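Everyone, describe these structure tokens:
***
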Amino acid sequence: MRVGVVKRTLVYLLPFGCIWMLAGLAAFAADPGRPEIAALNGKQFVGETGEQGKGDHHADTIVFKDGKFRSLDCENWGFGPAPYSVEQRGETYSFASTLVSPHLGTLEWKGTIAGDKANGTFRWTHKRWYGTIRRDYWFKGTRSPGPN
């Protein structure tokens, strides 16, 4: 009888424990006080973006602020700010972030910051009932002292 109570308690509490653990890991990864995150925090890069393999491109600005990554152009499509991860190798920082739109899917960003230059790629994935859209894009920018 006692074993049954313990099992039921574990079954009910285990999911909440996992949720708390994942929330803690996400908070740690996006902690603006971490040295890697702090190195990019408050920086923005103005440049051009376009679909890979196509000639068309347009202006975009990427921003690192308060542990969140933003693409100002992508915000026009509903892709809001998201936490980002950073890895430092020498004077180069590699970053990654996944922006989510409630209606248009996800943008998986990956890029590097070296000095005043930012280079990145991102994949737009939009799952629909009749098929999934996957398109790859590029970004090249230069650090801008403008407001975030």
Remarks:
- The chain has one domain: 31-144.
